[in-house]
Amino acid sequence: MTHQQRTSAIRKEITQSYKDLKAKYPVLKHQNAIGFAIFAFAVVLSLLLGYLWYIGIVPAWVLIPANAFLFGLLHELEHDLIHYMYFKSNRAVHNFMLGWIWILRPLTLNPWFRRTLHFHHHRFSGTLHDVEERGVTNGEKWSLKRLIFTPDLVLGNLLRVVGLFGDIKKEVENGNLKFEVANKLKLYGVFGLIPLTIIAHILLYIYSADAVVNFINGIFNTDFVLPTWIDAVLQWSNPIIYIVLLPNLLRQFSLHFITSNLHYFGDVEKGNVIEQTQVLTVWWTYPFQIFCFFFGWTHAIHHFVVNETFYVRHIARKKAHEVMKAHGVRFNDLGTFRRANRFHETSK
């Protein structure tokens, strides 16, 4: 069978499994209601935990992982919203949900800009101009630099922007990408960070600088002092940092680590969905998977059947995995860490 035939067979069987599941549990057909209920649950509980931390009832070591998990739920909802799976005909509610999700996950790209990059990702997954995945370190050799900048969309992308834009220019010159599309990708990638994402990262940089200085002073009995304006910023931003930013730092590192290693890059055959992703279920990824709602288990399914909700993908994943494995989709290909996410041992 060709890869197109195998992809078609996978899609057909997974789609049928979704139909069978919804026939058995008709409640799953109420997509808008379920999506909004999950949204309300995650938003309200995360803010409640934040308030309980603020008044001293919940400790930070509970708040941060709990909110990281809840924000992982919101990421899955945002991804579904980007594909117009909830309230497509009611843009007020649709945009209300997207807006709140971005406010509670401000380290990420503006979701209205990200929609363009994400649709491009589906069309050209694994290529030099797959801006969305390259922005989270996909395709780079593993090093301390990649590890440090895995969750960072500002400084991390600032360091790789010259190479990325250079590759996009080459793709245009080689006829693999239209000039207009290339410009749109670059503009959306930059302006999608303004202003919320950049501000959120700067607050984390300030917090990190203060933490490093305090650590050095404590270890070496020194008395380094940061400018007084840093203390002033930290005083008013402390609740934002603990309730929103630190949980998102944990969530975002986990998500980017998983997604950048389940997607293949650089030598993916054009249009070959089977070469685009793998399924990651290996046990040692669980600490990361928890904070991105086990993204590694189900995202490859999404590449075959795009327009289905994340919770249905999870419920029906066993059947989907059987079908995908039978047709050659890879599972737990850990060589991708050594190969800088290339599909083949040696690039084509």
List the helices and strands and how they pair.
Layout: H1 3-24, H2 31-54, H3 60-82, H4 91-104, H5 111-123, H6 131-134, H7 144-149, H8 155-173, H9 179-191, H10 196-220, H11 228-262, H12 286-289, H13 295-304, H14 310-315, H15 317-326
Helix pairs in contact: 1-15, 2-3, 2-11, 3-4, 3-11, 5-9, 10-11, 11-13
Query: What share of the residues does DSSP label as strand, in percent?
Result: under 5%
Largest sheet: none
| Helical amount | 55-70%
- Unreliable parts: none
Mean pLDDT, to the nearest integer, reads 97
Protein name: Fatty acid desaturase
Keywords: Membrane, Transmembrane, Transmembrane helix
Organism: Faecalibacter bovis
Transmembrane segments: 33-54, 187-208, 228-250
Question: Can you walk through the features of this model?
Answer:
By secondary structure, the protein is an all-alpha fold. It has one domain (3-337). Helices cover 66% and strands 0% of the residues. The protein contains 15 helices and no strands. The relative contact order is 0.14. The mean pLDDT is 97.
